[in-house]
Known about the structure:
CATH architecture: 3-Layer(aba) Sandwich
Strand content: 15-25%
Structural class: alpha/beta
Largest sheet: 4 strands, antiparallel
Distance between the termini: 22 Å
Helix content: 25-40%
Strand order of the largest sheet: 4-5-8-9
Number of helices: 10
CATH superfamily: HUPs
Order of helices and strands: EHEHEHEHEHEEHEEHEHEHH
Shape: globular
Bound molecules: glutamic acid
Amino acid sequence: MFVTRFAPSPTGPLHLGHAYSAILAHDMARAAGGRFLLRMEDTDLDRCKPEYDALIQEDLTWLGLTWDGPIHRQAGHIASYNARLEALDGKGLLYPCSCTRSDIRAALAAPQEGIAFNVYPGTCRGRRMDSRKPGDALRLNLAAALEFLAAADLSFTETGPAHAGHHRVDPDAALRQIGDVVLSRKGEDIVAYFLASAFDDADQGITHVIRGEDLFDFTPVQVILQHLFGLPTPDYHHHRLIRDDQGKRLAKRDDARALSKYRAEGATPADIRRMVGLPNP
Ligand code: GLU
């Protein structure tokens, strides 16, 4: 059974890029006779707002998309993500990190094209878990994790047009490009996108992750986390990004491209499909 999801963060209105991602995932699920799930990645309690959660549902419904089952909201599961994370503690693969709040905040969100991903220089790597203070983040010691998983088959199947094929995780590239990711922030009970999304994909039985190409380079870290936590690896389909006239990826701040704006101006769902280059059913 093909099971996929659309996983927006309710931090702003949906724009054309989200519409493309949601319609593509929905249409692929329906064509396969599978399931299309909706997940709100709302762990950033400061930036996520119930009004955006409501607007996202309204926009998707207007587009003619229906999702199966109840909406999964990550904010309601943070204690369970943290409990599962703590279980990794005993393996010696985590360390506490007290580097600046803004660095850590940025590291918790899903990475995006155009926003530099900071590979952590390892300042706190030598710290022991028992030196953890309130407010410290927990980082994955990636080199230690890769060593721990030396015998594992760290690989994934990609069906998206730009990188179709079977990919093996290259440990050197992962260390160079991704490094010691933040997995959680103590005190504020915030868990990182990488981790919450890996747990949820497994818990929701996702067989195909359909999402923007800007996340392709970060798939290896999710594959590593899946192996560390004994989770299955789904297939991935990274799709092209919808860009503005200057070729820049659309972001939530591009309110001019908000779906609700097109909707208010009289566009139809068929117009939106045309604008993002998807066929009408
Ligand atoms: N919440 C993530 C984003 O909005 C979704 C990433 C994913 O689909 O894995 O970028």
